[in-house]
Design a protein that fits this description.
By secondary structure, this protein is mostly helical. 74% of the residues lie in helices and 5% in strands. Strand 3 and strand 4 form a beta hairpin. The longest helix is centred in the last third of the chain and has 38 residues. Bound molecules: zinc ion.
Length: 371
């Protein structure tokens, strides 16, 4: 039998991930429905209520139990998607111990953040009544801003080593690019991804004084200098376009709409399931189900918004570097190193991808002309 080509393997890898996404989605909905239907949530709410009458404490305990149970219930799927498949397709350098430690760290982080968010959400539900979704939306907006600012300095370093980029020729190129987009100081960091993965990645992250460009060592060590420059220019474009702020603003709008829809769904379901108050923690799976389904429906819209920002960043990257050839080489390398399907099915791309397909980005660059 012939060895499958790189793109055939990439298509298989993409198909398995899409299947996993569907399985996870159906599994989540079934779990939430089961919790409501078989009154698992009522049972848990009664138990935590008997531990302490203080609503802050019982919401916190309920939240912690749900987060830990969710982690355990999803562990086989996480193992399959994040560990087994990555190794099977030759994309991972991570040891099982390293993977397990990361899972433990993300569980700790998740516990801390989820309990805090749930406590504030239920405080708002108890205090604000019918207008809770506005209060909650404002809270999520503030939370999003704070998390965006802290992400590159507090969250990312929990999982990856970050060091200021030391490569002198690249730093010079960077300074030139930064001047061209009018950035005063913009730190560039080398992220140690190679001990975990072979995939290359780059990002623009942070808010205010934490704004920075992050380049994976997997990219810095495998890409040619002019290819790295064009990737840096793309991230610099996100900075120039204020894309993080735009994503937060966009996220705020969808969050307010989502919370209002969840409010309607909550009232509709409460009447049928026999819950009296919106702030009854036992009804949490109903609220979670409404938000989950809304998130699913909003996903194509969110992805379309993200893809439009990516197209703009690509255009600016080529204007800044005028190096179409390097751009195309970088995209091809990205496809090869990340085992990315160059042209996923258009419907899949529309629904699930936050970046335009690499084939479309390459085709666009081939048409590009400097003016
Ligand atoms: Zn981008």
């Amino acid at each position: 039998m012939d060895e499958p080509s790189q793109q055939q393997r990439a298509k298989r890898y993409e198909a398995i991930h899409n299947l996993l996404f569907v399985v996870e989605t159906v599994y989540t909905v079934l779990l939430l429905v089961a919790l409501l239907y078989w009154e698992g949530s009522d049972f848990l709410a009664n138990v935590v209520q008997s531990i302490s009458p203080n609503p802050w404490i019982h919401v916190a305990i309920y939240g912690a139990v749900v987060v830990i149970a969710t982690k355990l219930l999803f562990l086989p799927l996480n193992y399959l998607g994040d560990y087994h498949l990555e190794h099977k397709f030759g994309l991972s350098n991570e040891t099982l111990g390293g993977w397990a430690f990361d899972e433990l760290k993300s569980l700790g982080l998740n516990l801390l953040l989820s309990v805090a968010v749930l406590d504030v959400l239920y405080f708002v539900l108890r205090r604000v009544g019918d207008w809770w979704w506005i209060g909650a939306g404002l809270f999520f907006l503030v939370f999003g801003v704070v998390m965006s600012a802290l992400f590159p300095v507090l969250i990312l370093p929990l999982f990856y080593k970050l060091q200021p980029l030391e490569n002198e020729p690249l730093r010079e190129k960077l300074t030139v690019l930064a001047q061209r987009v009018g950035a005063k100081v913009l730190g560039v960091y080398r992220m140690g991804m190679s001990e975990k993965t072979k995939k290359a990645n780059a990002a623009f992250a942070g808010l205010g004084s934490t704004k920075r460009i992050i380049l994976g060592d997997t990219l810095l060590d495998k890409f040619a200098e002019d290819e790295i420059e064009v990737v840096m220019a793309h991230e610099m474009a996100h900075y120039q376009h204020g894309d993080i702020t735009k994503m937060i603003a966009w996220g705020a709008v969808t969050t307010f709409v989502g919370l209002k829809v969840a409010d309607l769904g909550l009232h509709w379901g409460m009447a049928r399931l026999g819950y009296e108050y919106v702030w009854d923690i036992a009804a949490f799976p109903l609220l979670a189900l409404c938000l989950f389904v809304f998130g699913l429906l909003a996903m194509p819209l969110n992805n379309a918004f993200s893809r439009s920002r990516e197209w703009k960043a690509d255009a600016t990257a080529l204007e800044l570097t005028a190096n179409r050839d390097a751009f195309i080489r970088a995209m091809r390398k990205l496809a090869e190193q990340n085992l990315a399907d160059l042209s996923p099915h258009p419907v899949v791309e529309f629904l699930l991808h936050d970046h335009p397909s690499l084939a479309r980005r390459i085709a666009w660059a081939e048409q590009w002309q400097s003016d």
